[in-house]
Protein 1
Amino acid sequence: MAFSVNTNVGAMAALQSLNETNKGLSQVQSRINTGLKVASTKDDSASYTIAQGLRGDMGGLNAVSSSLSRAKSVTDVAVAGAEQISDVVNQMKAKAYQAADAGIDTATRDALNSDFVALRDQITTIVKSSDFNGTNLLKAGGGTVTALQSLQDSNSASTTWDPDSLSVANQGLDLGGSTVTIASGATISTQATAQAMIDTITTTQGNLKTSLSTLGAASRKIDAQSTFTSKLSDVIEGGIGNLVDADLAKESAKLQALQVKQQLGVQALSIANQAPSTITSLFR
């Protein structure tokens, strides 16, 4: 091996090795600081691209979850109102049965009628109060609920995005409507009107069963979809982690090894840099 003061091959080799060690050390420190082994497309283009796509899906699922929560709230308010109306109608029917009794006196029938009218007006109050965020499923014209239930396009042949959704129809439980057939001015002030009211209320009760069943089924469907969306979101988040998260236990071990290697590299470079000085001993 030739001695030269112009070219120190040993020092160059030691420097290259030290640079590689420093590069690895920087990478490990970055992974420890961010918790990510793939923080940029420069780290791993394939994994980064897939993770970015999944992150976009996560944003969409958050929107689905929010939409379902809103629909759930509107539907639950409607369910509570419809159940209360059903209870009121049952009480009205009991009053009508009592008022239809030919053996009661006028004062008793008047008292029963007063109770009946108060219950009748309570239906209107319940309907008006069953509002959530501007949507009232119990009031005719109060709107319907449509919520996203997935990011899946419901029409794959369409050229525009048409997401899969679920809807809850307006039930229209106003007095005098097609469901609650009791007129807004209905009374049981006479035996005849009380007798006729029994039939009217029986029809209303049958209609309310259908409305309650519809609202209950919709609420359960929203609950089930919300649960699935939450689980799907967790699975996707776990998938992203598998792609880009760093194993900090491994990175910690690498860090210690590289720190020792860096110290040794600095010492090796120092020794290599001292080699040319030995040449001066040849000229003594």
Protein 2
Amino acid sequence: MAKILEKRPLSPITKLYRVDAPLVAKAAKPGQFVIVRVRDGGERIPLTIADYDREEGILTIVVQEVGTTTRYLGQLEVGDEILDLVGPLGMPLEIPVEGHIVGIGGGFGSAALLCLMRELRLRGDTTTIINGAREKDLLILNEELGEVCDNLEICTDDGSAGFHGLVTERLQQMIDGDAPGRPDSVVAIGPMPMMRAVTETTRGKDIPTLVSLDPLMIDGTGMCGGCRVTVNDEVKFACVDGPFFDAHQVDFEEAVRRNKMYVRQEQESKDRTTCMKLAVGQD
């Protein structure tokens, strides 16, 4: 069990949790994830590690309430315990020293840049984060992200904060020479359409690009096969071989199809949960 030490809302559907998990925090590295189970009989879900404090034994995760289990997790408060939290799992992200590294985050994916960009900055790289959302109320962790990088770029689709446009538009400006300069490498973490668009923006421009295929993960161990993806014409599993892969080698057509495989079942589960809450007067 992992006791919740802090719970903080970041957006209407996104919450940050700091939990007591000393063994996981001690071993965690940027790019890895944990498997969480909230209740007996509940499903196991993978959650990307946003940050860790090895000395204090504290792990930070950010959760977007989009399904049944994440909604149950959202009902837990400070002092409550997460039934199971296992990790760290997955391959740590390794980026060669490249000079100017740009991390692009969208939605809950922005949280995964916290520990990554801090580590890159500490080793001497120039770091920029492009943090994007549809509108300003959906932006998360701007203050924290600004503290772990050299340059923070804010983008909103509607122009309500920062750059008016998509993260790929701002990235293209930087590739073309706008300050803070052309990236030497790019890391994108967030929704599949955003990562795919970033991949096409950097394709053919001699800019190594990594994407996190954690949206495909289900059980996190490779046994279910739900996160199969083709990378450089080879079958890989996002949970055990990744979650980070060379973006220009990923078959995004296949990845997008696989990401939508369980949409109907997920919606049916959410509908059942809502009906049960209404029946007992909880909603």
Protein 3
Amino acid sequence: MSDLVTVQGVVLSAMPIGEYDKRIVLLTRERGKISAFAKGARRQNSPFMAAASPFVFGAFTLFEGRTSYNLNQVSVTHHFVELASAQPGIYYGYYFLELADYFGREGTDEREMMNLLYVTVKAILNPHIEDRLVRCIFELRTMTIQGLMPQLFQCAGCGREVNEEDELFFSQEAHGVVGRKCLGSVADGCRISGAALYAMRYIVTAPMGKLYTFTVTDEVLREMEHHIHTYVSGNTDKRFKSLEILDIMI
């Protein structure tokens, strides 16, 4: 006998199964990352046709079987259909879903990642925010949520407090900033400006609703891209398909 459960979540991916069905991956507040079968979701008259798609946020009612979940009902709160026509924004969005999927685990509270995905998708649709900056913010905040935040407030070498006026270097090896005196203790170290450090500190500490409320110069953005993208690459062991497409497009 199956049990009926309702979870708040977002669809990370959807894969065709057989002729008419789909398998969806959900990031949920109550049960972490789970997968479910949406029977008949590919039929034209199916109530799941639009709901069983990436970027859909809502309440998902599932039959919990002995070995799998089956979708029973969906109450959609946001589906962001306008994202499909955003270029290259849609591919940034798919990358963000991929990164959330990479870190997602069953049985964990994914409220923060769900909220981050929601405000990030809205940011992609905001023409006043550079997509490249949105990526930097999402990546660094994701690392923070996952317990992988780089050290930005103390020297990663000696532990002393540092500020934006100091001569500082970002070390991938040390997972954070180091001062001139500790630079010799790491094998790498790339100069980080006070403006880039200030922006990165804001990203890891700002309230979720305030994350996408600032801009930076193109010079600072390029610097942030170098530090953050390299840091994320060093802390993941997967080649993200959507990121490969993005690298070709931009």
Protein 4
Amino acid sequence: MLQVDLEIQVPNMAAQWMMGNLSTLLADLGDRWPACARDLTDEIAVGLFLSQSMYNLHTASVAEGLRLEAYAEMARAFEQVDFVIAATNPGPAFAADAATSSPTSSFIDSVKASRAAQIGFRGVMGTVRLAGAAFPRLPAALLEQVSERFPDLVRMGALTIISNIYGNPAVSIPSGQIDGLPVGMQVLARHHADELLFDVALAVERNNPWPLVATPQPTSAPAR
């Protein structure tokens, strides 16, 4: 197998992807939303309020333009190579009990900091929703600014969403640890080449098998 360096510039459309997908959750909640907001996790509730205010027909058209751009870029890449290998995630693994992937205080943390902050956020989103009716391009512009200001909202998953958008098969292969945290190697292939990815993953596993169970960590004895 010949390895080559290939620069692939795909747009990060994690925000648009997330907001579009939340429409299915809104359908499930039905008439219970938004009265049920406090029954949901803060992250889901914030996402729904953001989506309601910022996802309109113009935002969808921006997302479609990004999708076509990503599709063309991936097609160009697979004209030159059989596999694309990248990190599964662009950032380090986060704690199992973490609400978000951000290692520091995030946008969502600031929103859920207090009841007053949550009420203020809902008020701002309501204003954006009304303004968006008069200025349809406003939500998409605000979404772009939010993504730049709070990258933790769109960083995790930025390298895996492309497989969903482009529709090509991909596999994440355990490839070691950094500072005791697991790292995944994502391998992407052409359309309908799923069996080749199974072969690649099997070859890696045979050369460097990974544990099938978690290793328990020693705990200190309770004080008496």
